Amino acid sequence: MVEEQVKTGRRSLKEMLPTTDLTDRLERSTGMDRPIRALAKAIRKTIKPGKLRDLLHGVPTGKPAHPPLATFSLGCWMATAILDVTRSDPRAARTVLATGIVAAAPTAAAGITDWSALHIEQQRVGFVHAIANMSALAFYTGSLLLRLTGREAGGRALGFAGLGAAGLGGYLGGHLAYRQAAGANHAESVTHLVPLGWHNLCDLKDLPHGRPVTRRLGYIDLLVLRSGDGVTVLADGCSHLAGPLHQGRLISEDGVACVVCPWHGSTFRLADGAVVHGPATAPQPSFETRVRRDGIIQVRPAHRIQ
CB–CB of 69/56 below 8 Å? Predict the structure, then answer.
């Protein structure tokens, strides 16, 4: 009897709590893959690598640009709902509503730029996230038009519908950020993984000239590049989505040696791991190197102020 009550209680609790089945199904669903791939390709073709794309990714600030922009728009719309519920000054409600609508343009531009450089499982969730947010924007735009023509009641109703759509979009955005780690730094700081001091890595003579290879230091995979008697070492997993940098291309960007991630094209300066081009925004952990008299390469994490 007690066991049946416990089981019933568990079922009731499970029914009351939100389930991740929806997002899990979205991740696995292949029905949207054709339009997703076509749209992502069109976005990459339209917003080509360069200063604008880097700005939309958030490279200049070292942080993804989309999340704070989205928070600002959603904050404006939440404020609109509070003003509507309290029946405060309609002019104030129109002002914050319009501000959120205006801010939605750069928010969407940053979001679709990030989305175009994600894995397909992330893009599936992001696609529905974008549809929900576009629906919210349409509701809010209609709400503002009704308010401007004096139909406040209809404007408030559309505003609440927009808030519901934005809430769904926010839930899916949270899943992207916290469950699927889109926008997170995938090149974990190595200072707590490597003890203090110098550590033997490999023999200099075993490294090819001018071609990056991977070597392992404890738990960490490293990109190692020999240039003459000098050696450059970075963390190998790209900070964008952990792509293998040692498989990437070596290029010169304004006379500076760089490596390009083979997965999504993030470009890092070899000298210190700084981001040159996105979609990555976090730098690659870099290592100081020295060569012992017997030819053994030693490394230690480079400490720098971010």
Answer: no
**Interval 236-283: pLDDT, tens:** 999 999 999 999 999 999 899 999 999 999 999 999 999 999 999 999
Strand ranges (DSSP E) for 58-121?
Answer: none
Pick from 158, 185, 184, 171: which is nearest to 70 by CA? 171
Measured CA to CA, the distance from residue 117 to residue 56 in angstroms comes to 12
Nearest to 103 by CA among 138, 80, 74: 74
Same domain for 18 and 79, yes or no, is yes
Q: Is residue 247 included in any domain, yes or no?
A: yes
How many residues are given for the chain? Answer: 306
Nearest to 162 by CA among 145, 180, 182, 179: 145
User: What's the CA gap between 306 and 22, in Å, rounded?
Assistant: 38
Same domain? 27 vs 77: yes
CA distance 206 to 150: 77
Q: Give 50-100 pLDDT, tens digit per residue.
A: 999 999 999 999 999 999 999 999 999 999 999 999 988 899 999 999 999
What's the structural domain count of the chain? Answer: 2
Q: How far apart are CA 222 and CA 273, in angstroms?
A: 12
Q: What is the pTM of this model?
A: 0.84
CA separation for the pair 60, 277 (Å, rounded): 9
Same domain for 64 and 23: yes
Calpha distance 241→84 (Å, rounded): 42
Question: Which residue range(s) make up the domain with 54?
Answer: 2-179
